[in-house]
Please model this.
Amino acid sequence: MESEWKVAPYEIKHDFEKLLLAKASLKIMVFRANEHKIKEIFNLLESGIRAFQTKTPGEIYILAGYNDIYGEFDVRQIPVT
Model:
């Protein structure tokens, strides 16, 4: 599990990249963003998963973005095939 509470996308991506290297079947990333950036960050993290060369089939990524405006989480599950 990794988390990043700074809202800069590069800071979030930097912490997320640690999860790519972790050996675990379930990987969780928690971050915060305003509603205008949250979709961009989800896309950035999902593209990182797809581009990573040593994925293990069966891994599941849970991305949880805390929306600063609404005070709630937007959660996505990305299975690795």
Observations:
- The chain has one domain: 2-79.
- The mean pLDDT is 94.
- Residues 2-79 form one domain.
